[in-house]
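Box S2. Input/output pair 1.
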Amino acid sequence: MTSALSITRSVGAPRAAFVDFPLGHTTGKKNEPEMQKRLIKSALAAFHELREPGGIKILDERWSDDATWRKDPMRGGASSADAPEGDFRTPRLDTPQYQLPSDQIEAEAQHRQGGCGSCVGAE
């Protein structure tokens, strides 16, 4: 299960169930067991239904009647005085990002030598 669609797409998860909820609340709201049960059942059904690798089922659940939670998705809608309008989560890319050019050089060298811990089993 995921609430980070762009990340899930970029990592190539075998199968996933996406719910557009604040990060950290993928299985529902605290103290709402009925919502949590619906989400888990929907996700399990999706994992059974998805046949193609990389498939992502978008679950039909809503966090709230409006999108105010998107002002601060890390806090599930808690107000933040300086939060911009809309969803400000950073877009994810499907290519590696490096802080410094030297980081990229080092990572590529490790990869060529077979020492890239991130790539173990991915090839």
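Box S3. Input/output pair 2.
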Amino acid sequence: MITERNFVSISDLRDKTSSVIKDVNVFGKKIVLSQNKPIWVFLSIAEYNHMQKLSFEKEQATSKDIAAYTKSSHGDDGVEAFSFLESLK
């Protein structure tokens, strides 16, 4: 939940950096504002790790996927992209 305590002005960040960093650890995130618009988000390690757990798992392309893609309208470009990705394994 984002509350008023999650926001900090860019001038407060400049003048009270240590305090802002401590607050990030307490509140999980700080949204830095410049001219009343959000420009940055600082996350605690715990908040960042939590967000990573919520992200989608990577999907591996199978040879069946590659074959279907090469038969599609994407043609040779797709083959080259998949070949490159396969070489990274």
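Caption for Box S3: The first helix runs from residue 10 to 15. Residues 4-54 form a domain with the YefM-like fold fold (CATH 3.40.1620.10).
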